[in-house]
Amino acid sequence: MERRNTSISDSSLPVKQYAVDQVAGMLHAGKVYRREDLAQVSNAVDRHLRALVSGGTLKRLAQGLYYAPKTSVFGMLPPDDHELVATFLRDEDFLVFSPSSYNTLGLGTSQLYNKTLVYNHKRHGIFSFGNRQFDFRVKPRFPKKLTSEFLLVDALNNLDELAEDKSQVLQMVERKLSGFDQGELKRAISDFASVATKKRFKRWLHG
């Protein structure tokens, strides 16, 4: 009778797959994970990560950062910005928004930007996650949420980065000032304006 030679590597395959499946079973669609998060539930985290990425259960966003895909009728959804940034920073104290938000102020700006700003206290620089760019900027202060008054101040802080004609933007700001909540605007100027921006607003409001 012929005896089949079963190698140790062959017999270990179901065990390895079971371990991978166990890690996969702990993932939640739409959640972003750091490598160390998964190391807590895996005894061979790098091997398991490679298997999960290869099988499509996880998407690699950057070194040590992964996304468990969430799908809709339109296909795979990108990670939520807040979820992604909070996991990357290990912090909830930040403000994330697109410079395209300046277009809501009625200043005649219409440029669409393909980067996302992240004001925070920890990281500074351009970071790519998947096919998206995030511009992290360390700031001493920023609001918990966006307001029109903050966006107006921030647009002037970043005036040199705007694609539109700067002199036209400044003219529109001066013309539109009365349409903003004056109390909120003064607080935003005091808390968030650069020295140059404060000088502009002082000339407009008290000139």
Features of the shown structure:
9 strands; 8 helices; four-stranded mixed beta sheet; Arc Repressor Mutant, subunit A; 207 residues; alpha+beta
Helices and strands in order, then pairings?
Layout: H1 8-25, E1 32-34, H2 35-39, H3 45-54, E2 59-62, E3 65-67, E4 70-72, E5 75-77, H4 81-89, E6 94-97, E7 115-120, E8 125-129, E9 132-138, H5 148-157, H6 166-176, H7 182-192, H8 195-206
Parallel strand pairs: 7-9
Antiparallel strand pairs: 1-3, 2-3, 4-5, 6-7, 8-9
Helix pairs in contact: 1-3, 5-7
The rounded Rg comes to 24 Å
Strand content: 15-25%
Question: In total, how many beta strands?
Answer: 9
- The share of residues in helices is 40-55%
- In round numbers, the mean pLDDT is 90
* Structural category: alpha+beta
Return the string of H and E elements. Answer: HEHHEEEEHEEEEHHHH
Kindly report the spatial arrangement of strands forming the biggest sheet: 6-7-9-8
| Largest sheet, strands/sense/barrel | 4 strands, mixed
In DSSP terms (H or I, runs of 4 or more residues), the helix count works out at 8
Rough shape? elongated
Tally the structural domains: 2
Low-confidence stretches: 1-12
What is the terminal-to-terminal distance?
103 Å
What does this 3D model show about the protein?
The chain has 207 residues and is α+β, with helices and mostly antiparallel strands. The protein folds into two domains: 13-77, Arc Repressor Mutant, subunit A, CATH 1.10.10; 81-206, no CATH class. It has eight helices and nine strands. The protein has helices at 8-25, 35-39, 45-54, 81-89, 148-157, 166-176, 182-192, 195-206, and strands at 32-34, 59-62, 65-67, 70-72, 75-77, 94-97, 115-120, 125-129, 132-138. The strands form three sheets. A four-stranded mixed β-sheet has the order 6-7-9-8, with helices on one face. A three-stranded antiparallel β-sheet has the order 1-3-2. Helix 1 crosses helix 3 (45-54) and helix 5 packs across helix 7. The protein is elongated. The model is unreliable at 1-12 (pLDDT under 50).
